[in-house]
UniProtKB/TrEMBL annotation:
Zn(2+) binds at H274, H278, E352. Residues 26-201 form the CAAX prenyl protease 1 N-terminal domain. It comes from Desulfohalobium retbaense (strain ATCC 49708 / DSM 5692 / JCM 16813 / HR100). Residues 204-410 form the Peptidase M48 domain. The chain crosses the membrane at residues 100-123, 144-168, 174-196, 287-305, 325-343. The keyword Coiled coil does not apply. InterPro entries: CAXX_Prtase_1, Peptidase_M48, Peptidase_M48_N. Belongs to the peptidase M48 family. This is Ste24 endopeptidase. It is found in: Endoplasmic reticulum membrane.
Length: 415
């Protein structure tokens, strides 16, 4: 067993230990007493059930991480990656096509490994806690659509990387970065118009007091919406949410039907004000910009590591190739990705506080957003006491209690 193979396995083990350690700390952080700030909304039995839900999801996450580690250690230690590469290379398909076939085979294999986990999570855990409304037909249709879309998108991105690095060995990373950045921007337009409707039905919010209230709110903010749509989220889950999609003239708000059913009109308006805040304050372009910068950094690092013979041979590949280098790079990047993800989430959490503050001031009723957040946390069985390390590494939203504290301060200032 070579030094470089041990190094790759060590990186995977390091990431696994950090991840599972933080998940264990998160479980230790669960409390039995209902936090005072939410006692007016969440009773003891509901809170206990939410703690049990967090425990079940965390245990499944640790099991999945263990499965991933075992699969990758097996792939590396057995030389399967090199055997697969040699078998595909013998077909004489050319470097780009061989690379695409290699990643397609690897991706399909990993998908099949994870499929039982998805089935268990949906039809056992989510079902046990009353969230799942997904039928077998919807589940398998989702899987098929996701596979096709993933294959198309991954094919485009991987082809871009492979072709540019072949054509321009020294500057390929730059051209690939520019091209992928355009794809990222294009997806902001394509996703709400054509991709999301493949999975859900979006219908205009019906005329009435709620629509008028939301329209007036957007007008007061000077914010033009292409549409306010209700998405049939109840097709898959009882969980409630809302999200913003699109750029420019494609901007639209989507409210889960479960959200409209769970919250009062004033609370729905507060949630909309929060989403408007993200856009008025420029959070969406900043997050997209951060993603583009990360992609550029990854490609620049890949340019430095793609020809590292020790790492490539350590992973079991007999000959160096772009797809072999890219596979090794993904493995080396795992711990780095954890740190970059933490940086991204730090910015995202700050933006959530800013959007909360904006919503409180736009509606001139901080209590409406406070009430909405409490009801959503109760409805979705959110973990109210996550460990700080779990928040730092994985949470894109601040803990509910921190958001309530900030909004209470805003309410005091408002008075």
């Amino acid at each position: 067993m070579s030094f470089w193979l041990l190094g790759l396995m060590g990186l995977l083990l390091l990431h696994y230990c950090i991840h599972c350690g933080v998940e264990w700390l998160n479980l230790r952080s669960l409390s039995t007493a209902v936090p005072v700030a939410v006692q007016d909304t969440i009773d003891a039995s509901t809170y206990a059930r939410s703690q049990a839900y967090t425990t079940s999801r965390t245990r499944l996450d640790i099991t999945t991480a263990s499965l991933d580690l075992g699969v990758w250690l097996l792939l590396l230690g057995s030389g399967v990656l090199g055997d697969l590469d040699a078998w595909i290379g013998a077909a004489g398909l050319g470097e780009t096509v061989s690379g695409l076939v290699f990643f397609a085979a690897l991706g399909l294999g990993l998908y099949l490994v994870h499929l039982p986990v998805h089935i268990y999570a949906t039809f056992r855990i989510e079902q046990r806690y009353g969230f799942n409304t997904t039928t077998a037909g919807v589940f398998w249709a989702d899987q098929l659509k996701t596979l096709v879309l993933t294959a198309l998108l991954a094919g485009v991105l991987l082809s871009t990387v492979l072709l540019f690095f072949q054509a321009f060995p020294r500057t390929g990373w730059l051209w690939a970065w520019l091209s992928i950045s355009l794809v990222v921007l294009l997806l902001q337009v394509v996703t709400p118009r054509w991709i999301l409707p493949l999975f859900n039905r979006f219908t205009p919010l019906e005329e009435g007091p709620l629509r008028q209230q939301l329209t007036d709110l957007a007008h007061a903010a000077g914010f033009r919406l292409a549409s306010i749509a209700v998405m049939d989220g109840s097709k898959r889950s009882t969980k409630a949410n809302a999200f913003f999609a699109g750029l420019g003239k494609t901007k639209r708000i989507a409210l889960f039907d479960t959200l409209v059913q769970t919250l009062t009109p004033r609370e729905v308006a507060a949630v909309l004000a929060h989403e408007i805040g993200h856009n008025v304050l420029g959070h969406i372009p900043r997050l997209i910009g951060g993603t583009v910068l990360k992609i550029g950094l990854f490609l620049a690092l890949f340019a430095l590591l793609k020809d590292h013979q020790g790492l490539i041979q350590g992973a079991g590949f007999e000959e160096a190739s772009l797809h072999a280098g890219l596979t090794v790079f993904f493995l080396v990047l795992t711990p780095v990705g954890l740190l970059l993800g933490a940086w991204h989430n730090t910015r995202a959490r700050r933006y959530e506080f800013e959007a909360d503050r904006y919503a409180a001031r736009l509606t001139e009723a901080p209590q409406d957003l406070i009430s909405a957040l409490k009801r959503l946390a109760a409805h979705n069985m959110a973990n109210l006491t996550p460990h700080p390390w779990h928040v730092a590494l994985y949470a894109s939203h601040p803990p509910l209690l921190k958001r309530l504290e900030a909004l209470d301060q805003e309410a005091g200032d408002h008075v």
